[in-house]
Design goal:
Strand content: under 5%
Structural class: mainly alpha
Helix content: over 70%
Largest sheet: none
Number of strands: 0
Order of helices and strands: HHHHHHHHHHHHHHH
Distance between the termini: 25 Å
Mean pLDDT: 79
Shape: globular
Low-confidence stretches: 1-16
Length: about 350
C-alpha cells in the first residue's frame, strides 16, 4: 500500500518545498512498528503460541485491503501504461533468493568454500548481472529503473536506505534475542524493552520533516542523525562486559532519534530533482532497496551471531555482533556525505 499512498500524498504537495512534512505522514506510522510490533507480538505469542505470529497477519492484511479499496482514490488513469516486466521480475527475484540462500549456507558451514554456499552465490551474481543488462536495454519499464541512479540525490538516498534498513532490521532481529537469551526476559518483556527505539524514531520524524522543509539542509540533518544513531548503539557493543538497563534504554532512544531523522531525510531526498512522472518508479525502486537492505542486514548479522556463539559466551557473542551492526550503521555515513548540500533542479531521467 505504500506506493499509492506516497503518490497520493505527493500529488497534494505544491512543488517540493513541503515534501519533508508530506513524507511525515508516510514515515511516522511506520516508525511505530518498533514500539507496537514487539509488544503486540509478545502478547500474541505469549497467549496463543508462536504460530499466531503468522496467523495474525491474515486479518491485518484483509483490513488493509478493505481500507485501500474504500479510502484510496483511483486517481487519473495514465495513457502511458506499460506491461509488467516479467523477465526482469524473474531475474531479480531468483538472483536475490540465490544470494540469500548462499549466505545462509555459508553460515551453516562456517565457510564460503562449501558447494552449497558458493554455487548459489555465483548463480545469484550472474542473474543480477543479467538483470542489469536487461533493465538498461529493455523497452518495458523495469522493476527497478537503473536510469534513476543518474540522479545524485536518488542514488545517495537509495544506498543510505539500503544500509540503514540493514542496520535497523538487523538490530530489531538482535535486540529481542539478546533480551531473551542473555537476560532471560519474557517475549512480552523483550517487546516492551524495544519501545524507546520506536519512540525516538517517531519524535525525530515529526520534527525532521519541518526542519528539512524550512532549511533544505538534508545532508546536515542526515549527518547529525547518523551521529546520534551510532552513539546510541555504542552501549550495546559493551553488553559482553556490562549491561546497565537504564543506559541501554537511553541508548536505544538516542539511536531511534538518529534513525528517524535519517530515514525521513533520505525518503525526502529520494524525490529531489525528479519530475512528477518519475516519482512513482522512484518510490518502487527506493522501497525495494530498503527491503533488500533489511533482508541482507538481518542475514549477515544472524550469520555473525551464529559464528560468534561458538567461541564466546552468550552476552559476549551479542556484544561482538552489535559491533558489526554499529559498523553497518557507520558505513551509511558515506552515502550521507554524497547527498546534495541543497535541493537539486528537476531532471527528467
Amino acid at each position: 500500500m505504500l506506493f499509492p499512498l506516497v503518490r497520493l500524498i505527493l500529488a497534494q504537495v505544491a512543488g517540493q518545498e513541503r515534501m519533508g512534512r508530506a513524507m511525515v505522514f508516510v514515515a511516522v506510522p511506520g516508525s511505530l512498528i518498533p514500539v507496537l510490533g514487539p509488544i503486540l507480538g509478545g502478547l500474541v505469542i505469549g497467549s496463543l503460541g508462536w504460530r499466531w505470529a503468522f496467523y495474525i497477519n491474515v486479518p491485518i492484511c484483509l483490513t488493509g485491503l478493505v481500507l485501500a479499496w474504500r479510502l484510496v482514490p483511483d486517481g487519473q488513469r495514465s495513457t502511458d501504461r506499460s506491461r509488467l516486466d516479467l523477465l526482469g521480475l524473474g531475474l531479480l527475484a531468483a538472483g536475490l533468493a540465490a544470494v540469500v540462500y548462499g549466505l545462509s549456507e555459508a553460515g551453516n558451514h562456517n565457510s564460503f568454500a562449501a558447494l552449497t554456499a558458493w554455487l548459489p552465490l555465483a548463480i545469484g551474481a550472474a542473474l543480477l548481472a543479467s538483470y542489469t543488462v536487461h533493465a538498461l536495454s529493455s523497452r518495458t519499464e523495469p522493476i527497478i529503473d537503473l536510469r534513476l541512479f543518474a540522479v545524485r540525490s536518488f542514488t545517495a538516498s537509495s544506498i543510505l536506505l539500503f544500509l540503514l534498513g540493514g542496520s535497523v532490521f538487523g538490530a530489531l532481529f538482535l535486540l529481542p534475542l539478546y533480551y531473551q537469551q542473555a537476560r532471560g526476559a519474557s517475549v512480552l518483556h523483550a517487546g516492551l524493552l524495544l519501545a524507546p527505539l520506536g519512540a525516538g524514531m517517531s519524535l525525530a520524524m515529526t520534527y525532521a520533516g519541518k526542519l528539512t522543509d524550512r532549511t533544505g539542509a538534508e545532508r546536515t540533518i542526515t549527518l547529525a542523525g547518523m551521529g546520534l544513531a551510532v552513539a546510541g548503539l555504542i552501549p550495546y557493543t559493551l553488553v559482553g562486559s556490562t549491561a546497565n538497563q537504564v543506559v541501554l534504554a537511553v541508548g536505544l532512544f538516542v539511536a531511534g532519534l538518529g534513525i528517524g531523522a535519517v530515514t525521513l531525510t533520505a525518503l525526502t531526498a529520494t524525490y529531489r530533482g525528479l519530475t512528477p512522472k518519475r516519482m512513482a518508479p522512484a518510490t518502487s525502486a527506493n522501497r525495494i532497496m530498503q527491503q533488500l537492505g533489511s533482508v541482507f542486514g538481518t542475514v549477515v548479522l544472524a550469520l555473525i551471531l551464529q559464528h560468534a556463539a561458538y567461541a564466546r559466551s552468550t552476552p559476549a557473542a551479542f556484544g561482538h555482533t552489535f559491533i558489526w551492526a554499529l559498523g553497518l550503521t557507520a558505513l551509511a555515513f558515506i552515502p550521507a556525505l554524497a547527498l546534495p548540500p541543497r535541493p537539486q533542479p528537476q531532471q527528467d531521467t
